[in-house]
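Handout, tutorial session.
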Amino acid sequence: MARPSRVALALGSGGARGYAHIGVIAELEARGFEIVTVAGSSMGALVGGLYCAGKLDDYVDWISGLSQLDVVRLLDVSLTKPGVIGAERILTRVREILGDTVIEDLPIPFTAIATDLFAGRAVWFQRGNLADALRASIAIPGVISPHEHKGRLLADGGILDPVPVAPTSGVPSDVTIGVIIGSDGGPETGASRQSKTKGLLRRNVAPILDNEFVRSVRDRFGSEAGDVAGTEGADEIAPAATSDEEGAVVVDTGALSPDAAGEPGRMGRVEVLSRSLDIMQEALTRYQVAGYPPDVLIRVPRRAVRTLDFHKAAEMIDIGRELTAKALDDLPEMP
């Protein structure tokens, strides 16, 4: 009997929660696994692309030093663009890190997923400029402006493919790991063996954009800019692991307590949009996982941080590592 060693990795969409992907990769490498292919949507594409290019450490060094105010400045809030956030300042730094890297020259096969808004279908980036592919994939609808590329208007890959397992199937591997970001868990995973890890995911409810600059914009133009932050409450979630009917190892986060849902009337407009997308992606993910079931499914809870809490990278990286460690501990040996 041998432990699987070659991993195909599908990294899901989820805004700032997607920093958990960095922890997933770190834990896999620490345990000696070889990542042989990566596919990603949105933040999964950003993290996965940087990793395949050998530049993830440079990116982590940069984001680890960002304060909440630094993030606000980078977000480039606008009330006139198709998205509240331009994101070009962030992408400028990413382009500096990546240079002119093209996908087909990466040492690890990589696919970034975007959505063609005109054609209404998913686009797989497996060739071309890596930074352009990442820019297209991270365009959260209504939040980050879509990306115009070769006559297409491209948006977040998570719209149609929140956990892109299918693109990894062309590369031989021992085990396929899918990472769902922003999950509330679900009944399809079967009965869970509860394993409490108290205090793992305590949230900070201070709005990310609660600062003098944004307050001045809100005062001048109304509450639209302030809606980006959201106003969800804090809660504590305990990860657990189980095996589903297909034998896949599933790391789940348990059900949310009834009072964790917050007050619906306190959601801002962008928060309503973000939550609506979360719900749609959760339902779509269930169908996709049924069609392309990974061997290991790691669920990162939606309430770990908010979509735009990009100053909480260290917190999400730790969560990603802990959830991955639990999944790998339960990974069965190969015959």
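The second record follows below. Compare its token runs with those of the first.
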Amino acid sequence: MKFFEDVELQKIPYRFSYRKITTEDYKGFYHCHQGMEFLYVLQGTGQIVVNRKVYLIQPGTFLYLQPYQLHHIQVDVHPDAPYERTIIALEPSIFEHYFAAFPQLNDYFQHLWKNELEDQVLQQMDNMSFINQLFQHHHTVFSSYQHDAKQQNFALLMLQVFQFLYAKGFGDPIENGLHPQRQLHYSEKIMNWLEGHYSEEISLDKLAEHMHISKYYVSRIFKQETGSTLMEYILARRIKQACLLLNTSNKGIEQISIEVGMNNFPYFCQAFKKLVGTTPMKYRKKLR
């Protein structure tokens, strides 16, 4: 279920989830996000696989994920050992102009956004660290702002986060533009394409043509890189969007089913309950 927590960044270009707590089973699997994402862990232990490296997750772990970067998180969770974290995410193209007045910081922002990175994790940061106090401060004042002011306040938060990371030497700060741009894996390119097509009837032929590989190889490489089938991912992506619409709109549930590309309403309800753990109606009522 936790796969569906992401905000659709095309609709809201940022996310700030302060000290989010999970006390139930946390099943991890390979997925990606369309924007830049930062994760700061306050409680919980486990591991994350990203860029073919395995990192330990523990209190004080600070992790950065690039757009469409495939990753797999596993956390040991039960009521006496919750998973508590702060998550910030942004669509970088929307916030790029905020960095323009700070040339050095802008170069670093572009580097973390687009280039190959040697390391993407800081460990052993305590609850009194600068970054945790920064999150706490912005969480305190964030709710008092209107929409436009919220985005500006979030931009200020991100400028401070990037300044902090640059001072730490995080991600091997760029020198003389020598770092190569990150090349997406096939599965990441496929997920990128699906962002614009998941609500349609998916054509493997069109996807394969876009990828310049055979449709048989599309299915095989996706399963090989992510551990799940292409159709499992498409279903999860559609249900994720349905969760967002149930939370942010007053559209009828059957209308939402059609809008996310699932015209068979009984199957939509069945799949929703299987993946989310409750019916669409109960999910909506719980949120309101």
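Points raised in discussion: Residues 1-8 have pLDDT under 50 and may be disordered.
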